Amino acid sequence: MHYVEAKGILSPRNGMNLYRGCVHGCIYCDSRSSCYHMDHAFEDVAVKRNAIALLEDALKRRRKPCMIAAGSMTDPYIPLEEELGHVRQALELVLRYGFGITLITKSARVLRDLDLLAAINRRTKCVVQMTLTTYDEALCRKLEPHVSTTRERFQALLQLREAGIPTVVWLCPILPFINDTRENLEGVLDLCLQAGVCGIVCFGMGVTLREGSREYFYAQLDRLFPGMKERYIAAYGSRYLLESPNSRQLTALFHDVCRRGGMVHDNDSVFRYLRTLEERTDQLSLFG
Q1: pTM for the full model?
Q2: What is d(CA 26, CA 146) in angstroms, rounded to the nearest whole number?
Q3: Mean pLDDT for the chain?
Q4: CA 7 → CA 60, 93, 252, 262, distances in Å?
Q5: Over 80: is that where the pLDDT of 69 sits?
Q6: Three-state secondary-structure class, residue 19
Q7: pLDDT tens digit string along 211-234?
Q8: Computed over its alpha carbons, how large is the radius of gyration of the chain?
Q9: What digits encode the pLDDT tens for the residues 110-128?
């Protein structure tokens, strides 16, 4: 960990990352890609020392409340958050100034802030987004070694539902030859149905690899799945998009289960819902 001074905290689309870098160790993480120009080791998390002051200044200046989105590049609930509490401080500001919040995480640590998330949702709007990758707990420990397991995330989704907080699941990535099976997809979707998630974001049955993330991913394949790197190279070469050979069948299954289960599965509709701070009537009207 090291501290940095940030020039700003909100992106043009009101995205916010209080930290830069991560220690969750997900083998497929796109945030490792060279195109993001990180000038320090990925696991040496940069803490934006002045982030909370910048956020309060930004919220006070806004003429109209909007949705603030956290966690697009770094999971807000990395272990450091337990010590520093920056996310909790940011949520307190969001509540104080009447903004909405949506955050994306893979960590059950989100439950620490259940009181604030529920308070925000009662006043304006709060949506928690949770990534689910695999139904298999042992495989989850390989793919995402230092973060809450799928079952732990599922339990968090249940508690969020009980608190009245809407949830969205990111179904990604689907790694060819690893978790691209009917059994895995059905298992994950069943958890989503049980948890009553509002919608699911899915960018297809595959994974994307860029310079930087590709090298790390292949090194982990060598360590965890001997021979798999060679299989990837033979099948995909240096492509950016690596689509599962089972993509057509899995995609049809995905849409069918979501349709029958009443889960929104159109990305544009989900993102419109996440970006929009509605009037305090029916928050789910955008999904209607």
Answers
A1: 0.95
A2: 8
A3: 96
A4: 17, 19, 45, 43
A5: yes
A6: strand
A7: 999 999 999 999 999 999 999 999
A8: 19
A9: 999 999 999 999 999 999 9
How many Å apart are CA 116 and CA 182, to the nearest integer? 38
Bridge partners, 127 (sequence order):
102
Largest CA distance in the chain: 56
State the residue for tokens 């006043």: 123
Residue 17 burial class via C-beta count within 10 angstroms: exposed 0-12, middle 13-18, buried 19 and up: buried
The phi-psi region of residue 65 (left if phi > 0; otherwise alpha if psi is between -120 and 50; otherwise beta) is beta
CA distances (Å), origin 54, targets 48, 93, 102, 174, 275: 10, 11, 19, 37, 21
Closest by CA position to 173, among listed 133, 201, 232: 133
Q: What is the pLDDT of residues 133-176, one digit of tens each?
A: 999 999 999 999 999 999 999 999 999 999 999 999 999 999 99
State the Cα–Cα distance between residues 18 and 8, nearest whole angstrom.
11
Residue 207 contacts residue 174 (beta carbons within 8 Å): yes
